[in-house]
Amino acid sequence: MVDEISEECGVIGIWGHEHASRIAAMGLFAMQHRGQEASGIAATDGREVRLVRQMGLVARLTEYCAEHGELPGHAAIGHVRYSTAGGSALINAQPFLIRHKRGPLAIGHNGNLINAKALRHQMEEMGHIFQSTSDTEAILHLVARHPSEDIDEAVRASLAKVHGSYCVVMLAKDRMFVGRDPMGIRPLCLGRLEKAWVVASESCAFDLVGATYVRDIEPGELLVIDEKGTRSLRIAESTKRAHCIFEFVYFSRPDSLIFGHSCDKIRRRLGKQLATECPAEADVVIGVPDSSNTAALGFSHKSGIRFEIGLLRNHYVGRTFIDPTQAGREYKVKLKFNPIPGVLKGRRVVLVDDSIVRGTTLRSLCRMVREAGASEIHVRISSPPVRHPCFYGMDFPTETELLASNMSVEDMRKYLGVDSLGYLSIDGMVNTARELEGQFCTGCFSGCYPDEELNKPERNQTALPL
To answer: Could you tell me which residues are beta bridge partners of residue 190?
Structure first.
């Protein structure tokens, strides 16, 4: 995908392994696609929690650890970040580490808190001092100010005060906390590595470290892991489930289990449903590598049109949305993708992508395919038009940034310079994941959000009394 959606973040936690920080780093490598801005690891040896963070890719983190030594300890948490709340700076890199009346506490967070600004304002009025601009820091302040001496209750009660999407891993000197929001918006799973426990945003991290998937962390669950074993607490109850369907469309690796189901299987179904709803007369089907290849395969299987590798991706070029200028983005598209004229020349091409956000880089890509000799280009998108902002962690906060909010499908077709443009319907998208019927957030497509306050015109960010 080249249309500038960023993933939110990825988290990992390990308890009960003599090389916990090394295992955490390996797991972060597997989830590098979820964030390329910064990474970090916190580890405990039972007496102290130590932290290392670096801007850039996980490789920079491991290089630092190789030079300065592996963080000691039997438990560790890790984080890869792309900023959705808070700017791009080392001070906003996670995990965060504080020391409060109950001892050291580190946190890594995937998601976005819709009431973070209101909570922060209330606490600043009370004299709290914030070190970062990240919404995650508000959770630590809530824990630190909680009156109970029982850290389990302090963490549980603090998570109950925040609204929005969160999967958190928290590390004290003698235990690890794993929490997920009551609607289960972001994925988080639990695994076993011999006698050690492992948690991660995606199960592909388990594959790399040799762990076995056990189950998903339940929505609204707070899992506490210490030397006595595991115990499950309830943060809050909710009958509503609102899994982010973009995890299947784009965010997650196809080899991961997401919300307990194969991402590869559902992504192929998206492509098949797309071929049913938006057929095209063409000679070849190509995907925008890598995230759209699986949907393109599904489109090919259903339509009977041959799948080809028509675009070659250079994996050593940074993601296009990181460049702040349009000219820079277009230049990086050319660096990142190269069309294969032998596949495209004189052919009617179905170009499958997973979504269109701003449309600028997809426009450049379509121009490249045309220049490589394609006689026709039929763009097919394996999700509905993205017309509304996301408040749960995706990187397009306003309608003004969204092409589909400002243009009709026909106008977008002309803007892209292609022969036809077709989108998957919302019902068609949701029905592909029929195992999770009625359990998705489709707010960025439909404008209807699982948090009712976001459906109000003023979209207030509410906060509970502190």
So the answer is: 199, 215
C-alpha span between 407 and 184 (Å, rounded): 32
Within 10 A of 20 (CB to CB), how many other CB atoms are there? 30
Q: How crowded is the C-beta side of 113, counted as CA atoms within 13 Å? A: 27
CATH number at residue 124: 3.60.20.10
Burial degree of 32 (CB within 10 A; 0-12, 13-18, 19+): middle
Active site residues: 9
Q: In what order do the strands lie in the sheet with 221-226?
A: 96-100, 103-113, 164-172, 175-180, 221-226, 229-234
Domain that holds residue 387: 266-446
Distances (CA, A) of 103 to 143, 161, 174: 11, 22, 10
The answer to the question of residue 248 being in a domain is: no
The enclosing H or E element of 231 equals: strand 229-234
> What is residue 185's DSSP assignment?
-
Burial class (CB in 10 A: 0-12, 13-18, 19+), 127: exposed
- 161, 143 Cβ separation under 8 angstroms: no
232 and 273 both lie in a single domain: no
Q: In what order do the strands lie in the sheet with 348-353?
A: 306-307, 284-287, 348-353, 376-381, 420-423
Tens of pLDDT, residue by residue over 117-173, are 999 999 999 999 998 888 999 999 999 999 999 999 999 999 999 999 999 999 999
pTM of the model: 0.92
Which distant-in-sequence residues (6+ apart) come within 8 Å of 388 by Cβ? 399, 402, 405, 443, 444, 445, 446, 447
Compute the distance between CA of residue 77 and CA of residue 6 in angstroms, rounded to an integer: 22
Confidence of residue 90 (pLDDT cuts 50, 70, 90): confident
Buried b (16+ CB within 10 A) or exposed e, 264-292: bebbbbbbbbbbeebbbebbbbbbbbebb
Please count the other Cβ atoms lying within 10 Å of the Cβ belonging to residue 423: 24
- Burial class for 44, CB neighbours closer than 10 Å (0-12, 13-18, 19+): buried
Neighbouring-strand partners of residue 9: 81
Beta strands in 56-143 (DSSP E): 75-81, 96-100, 103-113
Report the half-sphere exposure of 201 (CA within 13 A, side-chain side).
35
pLDDT in tens, 52-77: 999 999 999 999 888 888 899 999 99
Helix (H, G, I), strand (E, B) or coil at 351: strand
Measured CA to CA in angstroms, residue 211 lies from 17, 32, 79, 175, 192 at distances of 12, 18, 18, 20, 5
Domain with residue 349: its CATH number is 3.40.50.2020
